[in-house]
Amino acid sequence: MSVKLLGPCAKRYLPAxxxxxxxxxxxxxxxxxxxxxxxxxxxxFVTNTPLCDTxxxxxxxxxxxxxxxxxxxxxxKAMQYLMANTELKMCASRTPAEWDExxxxxxxxxxxxxxxxxxxxxxxxxxxxxxxTSIRTGHEYMLELLNQHPDRMFxxxxxxxxxxxxxxxxxxxxxxxxxxxxxxxxxxxxxxVYVISQKATNRMAMEDWQHSGxxxxxxxxxxxxxxxxxxxxxxxxxxxxxxxxxxRWNPKYYPYFQNCVGAIDGTHIAAHAPADVANNFRGRKSxxxxxxxxxxxxxxxxxxxxxxxxGAVHDSRVLTTQLEDPTSGFPHPPPGKYYLVDSGxxxxxxxxxxxxxxxxxxxxARRRAGGINGPTELFNYRHASLRNCIERCFxxxxxxxxxxxxxxxxxxxxxxxxxxxxxxxHNFIRLHNRGDPLFDRYGVDGxxxxxxxxxxxxxxxxxxxxxxxxANSRNDNNFANDMRDRIMFxxxxxxx
Length: 496
What we know:
The protein is an alpha/beta fold. Helix content is about 55%, strand content about 10%. It is built from 21 helices and 7 strands. The strands form 2 sheets. It has a 5-stranded mixed beta sheet with strand order 5-4-3-6-7, sandwiched between helices. The radius of gyration is 35 Å and the shape is elongated.
């Protein structure tokens, strides 16, 4: 029966579907038989028209045809087409009693009624042309990238083969990801990394990997969730007891910043937001963005990341909220240790900010013809030079994953997961591929990445001033200011 259905209906039905259609046809046949008994309803095979009054036909169309979801005109054309079939003529020429006794003939009638259900779609069916017919399949494309020149793979997914194979091994061991029925895990991961590395749309991925749009979407979502779940594995708090090598072996920073454990800053990434909340995501440049707060070590590894904040929210408010939330997982520095922050944050215990109203940024200091002028400028210059690691981290992150600059239309939840996935992959590549070209380019001390157009550096903090009005806060700030002054004078004394 499934084979017979495939011909006239152009669709393969399951046995359960055929059974359901069969029972529905029995109900329709019962109503049809009642019409024959009470009205003499029939079919003239000579003129290929129904034998009944106009009122009877209209009543039949109202009770039976409308329930099928087709128009009476389409139904009549379908009936004329079906009744012209020899096999159905033989079926219709029998009496109702013989129809009940002959199952094979009733199956033929069922096939006819199933075609009627398709209505106009059946008569005017447009032939579907295969779309993804490239000689090179997605799997073959993956093998081509893996086995040919290594730069081809790096240009496509921003990582080399050894690092990619290590990522596959980690995903197999630490997540539930496995090969699907039609796609290997390697191809699934490569599709995901390709999309975030090339800011590719669903249609672009369909063409390059020769899969349907739904397959690309399902694969992207599955891999995104799996990689985001590895955040606690690859984004860990720093070692608060050790002095970073980047400070210990550099006389510009040691011993002045020996208690520094990392740098904090926020960055804006492109976002798509619903119209009713879009204004909350507009930054200072009126573009729709989301705010991401990050802490990094001086080895350019992210040690803490929080994503999904609206672009209109100031960096200091994001930090304050994370500090006050006991479930945020924020790595609070022990007493005496601190993070470097820019002038958009308050100078307080655990967070060392530069002097305000004094040249701070590296490009400002290097633009000055007279060089360093005074202890505060020297402190700000070295503070900015050391804190520059977080800017370089953001530079590598956005250079490797352009989707953070040109986010496609994902849900807000998915956008947060994508940003987290990019940070996880950033750390993974840093740990397993020390010769990565992007880290080599941005890893040099003093390299200045392109400025962030929506950065909150030097912007007035709307939340930092109101939260520091208490006596305890003023005392803490005085302690932090004294520590900063002590570092400044010691640094300037040795500088001369």
